[in-house]
Amino acid sequence: MTAPVDETGTEQAVRGRQQSDRRTGPANLAVTLVVLTVLLVVSATMGLAIGSVQVPPGQVWGILTHALGADWSTPDWSGARETIVLDIRAPRVLLGAVAGAGLAVVGTALQALIRNPLAEPYLLGVSSGASLGAVVVIVLGVTWFGPVSLSVAAFAGALGALLLVYATARTGGRITSTRLVLSGVAIAAVLTAVLHLLLLTTDRGNEARAVLAWTLGGLGGVSWSTLWLPSAALLLGIGILMAQARNLNLLLAGEEAATTMGLDVARFRARMFVLLSLVTGILVAACGPIGFVGLMLPHIVRLAVGGDHRRVLPTAALGGAVFLIWADIAARVVAAPTEIPVGVLTALCGGPFFLWLMRRDARRATDRGGS
């Protein structure tokens, strides 16, 4: 039996958080969004320009405007450059923006739902579950759902892994950071072992090699025909999460406080788990598991716009898009002509950030214990 919750005190606490977030001011939020939007345009331009064949940024915009019918001047570029920009790099850059934005908002929502700053699809084993579901479809050749069979299987794997990690980590109605991470690592290890077993025992050697490279995360090989599904998943996820931003804010005060404020926590959390697993599964099916984007970006943008999810979600989406585009640019040029899997670079950035978060939380726990 839980102790009664003071509704007046709870409401005051929630209002206090909202007032604290308002100190950043709408002007500061607007400036942040404008700056990130400009950075996104610049990043996308550089993503189209940089590669084994360098295309001047001005020429990139000329190719784009000409393709859109907004420029009727005589092209001063070759057909090969136009093909590189429009058919090879443009889908890749757009997938990077979509995947980065999607992973950032999923990480933001998970951290609120579980009330844990370390929550993130990759660390919680959700990406591993999605990868296993996708690999099962590839290896076994399952096409029950037609062209979206890969995404459906990845969604099922992501949802199953998330529910399993959550059930394993929750003891006595509480989830600690250590238990959550350990559960995620353990379940991800098991799922990854099963995935590798499938790849080793399959008779499709060429597919196994391709899938193994895909499991490291990458944006190569995407085409215009496959972009619609991750883009639709991103729009669906951001739309629903923005509509539920108030409920996500209520969870910041704790489950009992959120219940007092009228939120059915169990039902809301279950629905959000399904949504986040759907978005994660579709993104993993499109570009493989890319880790730590959903861990880093929410923490970084909260420093600029506060903790209100009406501010954090759109800011994290833009920041995640910018970050993953530049990670992909680095993956293409750092070891050129060899391409590094973008998931390797995000892990190199996210690993130290994860350790810093662990040390920060440990210091805070020590300070609270001492006081």
UniProtKB/TrEMBL annotation:
The keyword Transit peptide does not apply. It comes from the Bacteria. It comes from Streptomyces alfalfae. Keywords: Cell membrane, Membrane, Transmembrane, Transmembrane helix, Transport. It holds the Pfam family FecCD. Residues 1-21 are annotated as: Disordered. The chain crosses the membrane at residues 27-50, 93-114, 121-142, 148-168, 180-199, 211-229, 273-300, 312-334, 340-358. This is ABC transporter permease. It is found in: Cell membrane. It is a multi-pass membrane protein.
